[in-house]
Amino acid sequence: MSIRLRLTLLYSGILACTLIIFSVVLYVLVARFTLNWQEQALAEEAAQILTQGEFRLTVIRTPQGKVAIPQTFVQTRDLSGQVVSRSINLNGYELPLSAKGFAALRDGEANGWLEIVRTENGRLLIYSRAVISDGQPVGILQVARSLADLDQALATLRQYLVVGTLVSTVTAFFVGWVLAGASLRPINRITQTAREIGRARDFGRRVEYEGPNDEIGALVTTLNEMLTELQAAYQQVEQALVAQRRFVADASHELRTPLTTLRGNVELLQREPPLPEEERRAILADITAELDRMIRLVRELLTLARVDAGLQPRLEPVELGLLLEEAVRQAQLLRPRPAVRARVERDAVVRADRDLLRQVLLILLDNALKYTPENGDVEVTTVIEGKRAGIAVRDTGVGIDPAILPHIFERFFRGDSARSGEGTGLGLAIAKSLVEAMQGEIRVTSRPGVGSTFTVLLPLEAELSADDVEERTLPAFAGLE
Length: 481
Hints:
Blueprint (H helix, E strand, L loop, with lengths): L2 H49 L20 E7 L4 E4 L12 H8 L5 E8 L2 E12 L2 E11 L1 H53 L14 H55 L7 H32 L7 E4 H15 L5 E4 L4 E5 L1 H17 L7 E8 L2 E8 L20 H4 L7 H11 L3 E7 L3 E13 L18
Parallel strand pairs: 7-9
Antiparallel strand pairs: 1-2, 1-5, 3-4, 4-5, 6-8, 8-12, 9-10, 10-12, 11-12
Helix pairs in contact: 1-3, 4-5, 5-9, 6-7, 7-9
């Protein structure tokens, strides 16, 4: 059942119930009022008959112009209950009196007694009253009127109320149906637009609404906001799927090359007759190098997978100066040349994951050492910018072409100068992902032939005073500077 039909039925039902209650109350009030009026009229006519001249049970005299003849019927009874006299308009009909009413009037328990009886010509209202003489009841006077006209009027009123209620309810139903349709028309347009958007997956489309800022306007606003969020989420999913497909393709390519090399070397070792010992040692060294490369690649892929799965860093206060010295010492053990100069002029404590930040610094130092000549310079310094602090790695290496600079943090991306090395193209992508996981920022500036500067910034926890920090210069090994 549609909302339109439910609203229309609700409106019509409420109106019908209201009209029915109103009609019943009106009918009851009119019936009660007119009946009371008839009762009072009969009582007054009975009193007028008793007060005219000398009243006798055997002779009925009605005051001229005061008793409605022939609408009023008059009858008298003696104390035995026998009819003594009756008005001519009764035509021999005896007005009934119940035994209870007769006893109450005879014994003086009631001054008057009202009864309604049904006859062939309709209902009859009878008012009976005791006739008192010398303080004692001597008979009973009965005055009656037909209620046929009243019943007919009430029947007519009842018909009008029933017909009026039915007509009003039916009219209200159709009017309510039209009004509900007009009110729900914007919602129907919203539904149609949403259905079209869902079928076409066109989340850039919006629901148009030019009406007032009412509940429907709020619904349209909310729906458009939801479409904006869906569009952003859909684009993110599309980008993630594209990146995932590219990642799988690149990973497959990177793994296929060392595997092909390993297979070729193993086939060479299986040749008959066996190769000379010197060639066998060279092939084994090549196999070892390829295995190391595969191990590094798999390790880096696992790191990226952890980040993509929602890596939760263990954030804690980390002193940059000490971490910088540890990272430089470790990097120089792997690549002694060129020497790295560590400068800690303004030390600070940042909120970061110590192990992840060390891994980021090792990646940046490895790149700087890899692409800087042995007679070049690599310098690592601490930096403080407002409410952030971090480490900058500067080198005098080959630099980065401005055309490829925006892509260096993409996975498996390697510029021309990097293709001649043994890198996998994942180092900077890992560094960027780890820094962002720690709510930080990594940026780069570079000039070809001059060098590059990578800066890592993290939330500042505290800045150390100058008295606690002295400039540190850390050569790779003693005597090499």
